[in-house]
Amino acid sequence: MSAQAYDPLAGERTPEGPQFDVFLAGTVFLDIIFTGLPAMPAAGTEIWAEGMGSCPGGIANLAIATSRLGLRTSLAAAFGDDDYGDFCWRTLEQQEAVDLSRSRRFEHWHSPVTVSMAVDRDRSMVTHGHPAPMPASEMIGKPPRSRAVIVSLSAEEPLGEPGSACNWAELARREGSLVFADVGWDPSGVWSRSVLDQLEVCHAFMPNATEAMAYTGTETPRDALYAIADKVPLAVVTDGANGAMAIDSTTGEEAFVPAPRVTALDPTGAGDVFGAGIVLGTLCHWPLTDRLAFAGVCAALAVQQFGGSLAAPGWGDIADWWHEVRAAADHSGAYGTALARRYAFLDRLVPSVPLGAVRRAAATIARYADVGMAPPVPGKRPDRTVTHPAAEAPAQDDGGPDAPRAPVQKE
Q1: Partners of 150 in the β-ladder
Q2: What pLDDT score was predicted for residue 399?
Q3: Which DSSP string corresponds to 168-215?
């Protein structure tokens, strides 16, 4: 695994310390994302998209987000033996510096695929796949030592179930890992509160407002936060453009931080990016307000790009944003002044971020990108010159992960 250009935990590391900062497991999808659609196609019709991109998705969103922030990340996932599996493996391991030593390739198991169509700042998706050939705990065995693990709570594979075998996350907790948990949408509409019983073995829980209110049976995000804080040391509830709130009972802090004002293009993976920021801030022992603010700006930078996992910002992107905010503070009104004041803690971090810090990367299965080119007219052969040689991830030799990377490029 390649070293990152910037290590925010450098001061915490010792020869006896954990091998990884974050360990996680889940399903990797190949995401194919169509952007710039005027509308969803009606039955029996065809429409043309202005752009298209390909990148690893699913649990890869979170793995890439943590790795981009300089956390040493290891992922356990099943990969098919098809070209899609090759692409996702190569992108994660070589381009994004994610350790895959606990992952496995399986013959005759094709990679899960999701097609995402972005229309008017929202998205619709179609997914196809089959269950992984092997349960995660069986594939992982004894997990590597890590400072934190990130899990998704579910009724199918519960944590802390009396009388059942410990799953990989519980084994990691016994070795000193902090367990950060989130939860997914419940399509059944049951929202069983028994899911929250699993928080007994967790350090943190990070649902969005809808999930938090549904699982706690409360009517406001703040009431849901208080209910969750009774069950877990670090409770975090995200509320989209409204920001996020949290209670850390280990430090006695309670905080609310509004989200930076941005034009959101694609929310895919924003929750994962936010969670990565919370994990980093917690491992770095930052004040709760700074953790929420940092996670919020990471998510805000991500939603301004199309592309799920590859829209996750690196330290280079964060440094660029902060320098712009600070430079504009004196002539951008009260909001700009407040923003500069809220993120002043970045001054302690950004000056030490090297010039070659990781930035967003381009990845596409195709050979060329057509960014900025007009979409083709149906029935007419395009007459144009390709101007962007693209990266079939990982890209051409660009100096490795320490080199600056271009913004996400879409085919």
Answers
A1: 24, 180
A2: 36
A3: HHHHHHHTT-EEEEEE---TTS---GGGGGGGGG-SEE--BHHHHHHH
Q: What's residue 362's pLDDT?
A: 53
SS3 104: strand
Instruction: For 266-320, write each residue's pLDDT tens digit.
Output: 777 889 999 999 999 999 999 999 999 999 999 999 988 876 787 899 998 999 9
pLDDT of residue 407: 35
How many residues are listed for the chain in this entry?
A: 411
User: What pLDDT digit, counting tens, does each position of 20-79 carry?
Assistant: 999 999 999 999 988 878 899 999 999 998 888 889 999 999 999 999 999 999 999 999
The residue behind tokens 């990070």 is 206
Dist CA 205 CA 228 (whole Å): 8
Q: Which of 290, 279, 305 is nearest to 348 (CA)?
A: 290
Peptide bond into 135 cis (omega under 30): no
Give the ranges where 304-408 is alpha helix by DSSP (H): 315-328, 333-342
State the average pLDDT over residues 185-194.
Answer: 86
Q: How confident is the model at residue 401 (pLDDT cuts 50, 70, 90)?
A: very low
Structure tokens at 168: 């990989």
Give CA–CA dist 366/54, Å, rounded.
Answer: 8
Strand partners for 235: 205, 247
Residue 158 gets which letter from DSSP?
-
> Are the beta carbons of 276 and 64 closer than 8 angstroms?
no
131: exposed, middle or buried (Cβ count in 10 Å: 0-12, 13-18, 19+): exposed
The whole model's pTM is what? 0.85
Tell me the DSSP string of 213-224: HHHHT-SSHHHH
Residue 151 has pLDDT above 70, yes or no: yes
Q: What angle do CA 304, 307, 313 make, to 5 degrees?
A: 55
Residue 121 binned pLDDT confidence (cut-offs 50, 70, 90): low
Q: How far apart are CA 235 and CA 323, in angstroms?
A: 31
Specify the 3-state DSSP secondary structure of 226: helix
- Identify which of 56, 30, 62, 33 has the alpha carbon closest to the alpha carbon of residue 129: 30
